[in-house]
Amino acid sequence: MTNNAPVITIDGPSGSGKGTIAKLVADRLGYVLLDSGALYRLTALAALNAEVDLADEGRVAEIAANLNIRFAIAGGEVSAVLDGKDVSRDIRMERVSMAASKVAALPAVREALLQRQRDFREWPGLVADGRDMGTTVFPDAPVKVFLTASAEERARRRFAQLQGRGGSVSLRDLLEDIRARDDRDMNRAASPLAPADDAVVLDSTDIAIDDVLQKVLELVQNRIG
Questions:
Q1: What is the pLDDT of residue 137?
Q2: pLDDT for 52-81, tens place per residue?
Q3: 169 near 33, Cβ under 8 Å?
Q4: Neighbours of 172 (CB within 10 A)
Q5: Which of 162, 168, 178 is nearest to 89 (CA)?
Q6: 61 and 190 in contact (C-beta within 8 Å)?
Q7: 37 — alpha (psi -120 to 50), left (phi > 0) or beta?
Q8: Omega into 124 within 30° of 0, i.e. cis?
Q9: Could you tell me which residues come within 8 angstroms of residue 178 by beta carbon, excluding any fewer than 6 positions away?
Q10: Measured between alpha carbons, how far is 146 from 116 in angstroms, rounded to an integer?
Q11: Rounded CA gap, 85 and 72, in Å?
């Protein structure tokens, strides 16, 4: 890659806390933040809004390549804007999450979004949160973290999050969804979910978020300075 700005990749399954950690690390270091999952969620939402069959790889890839999106940052919060509308809450709905997992398994969609993700690499550095940031998108990143947690713990976190928003959902259904998503992400043909060979694997099941943050910052200090 021509741009040699340092990159910190934080990959892992849904609900592992990688988004929270990525945001905290980016804020602490003053780095650019890439929530790659949001790009797939935005693609999924756009496809759903257009009533496109999610199995129609060509149509969905076309939507991905032509997304009219931007990310706005205000008060420390990152908002996702699609076709001029703030859809930050919409892309976190369960139906969109499941749709995003499906479209992310399509090779043509991943290819359509690859360069768009790499374009986020800017000075003073980038924190990239996703599932294949360290293996496919930024294989030369000096710091790679794979953050995981048990499926049960990730379901409990999601359940608490949805309850806090006033949502009504079954913990058992969430656990089934997470396991199904894990299976789809780990077994897809294009960029399956897996830690990079040189990634540091952290299990956050029984670790407080502050402790995870400290471990990542120590890794950054050792590898980037």
A1: 94
A2: 999 999 999 999 999 988 877 666 677 888
A3: no
A4: 10
A5: 162
A6: no
A7: alpha
A8: yes
A9: 13, 14, 15, 151, 154, 155, 158
A10: 22
A11: 11
CA–centroid distance for 138 within its chain: 14
Q: How many residues does the chain have?
A: 225
What residue has token string 């690390």? 25
The DSSP secondary-structure symbol of 196 reads -
pLDDT in tens, 104-137: 889 999 999 998 899 889 999 999 999 899 999 9
C-alpha to C-alpha distance for 175 and 35, rounded to whole angstroms? 23
Residues 6+ apart with CB under 8 A from 221: none
CB burial of residue 144 (10 Å; 0-12, 13-18, 19+): buried
Residue for token digits 């149509």? 59
Q: What is the pLDDT of residue 1?
A: 47
pLDDT at 73: 64
Distance of alpha carbon 179 from its chain centroid, rounded? 17
Question: In which band, very low, low, confident or very high, does the pLDDT at 3 lie, cut at 50, 70 and 90?
Answer: confident
Q: Which residue has the higher pLDDT, 2 or 158?
A: 158
Nearest to 7 by CA among 200, 145, 141: 141
CB 215 within 8 A of CB 202: yes
Indicate yes or no: pTM above 0.85: no
User: ω into residue 142 within 30 of 0, thus cis?
Assistant: no
Alpha-carbon distance of 188 to 194, in angstroms, equals 11
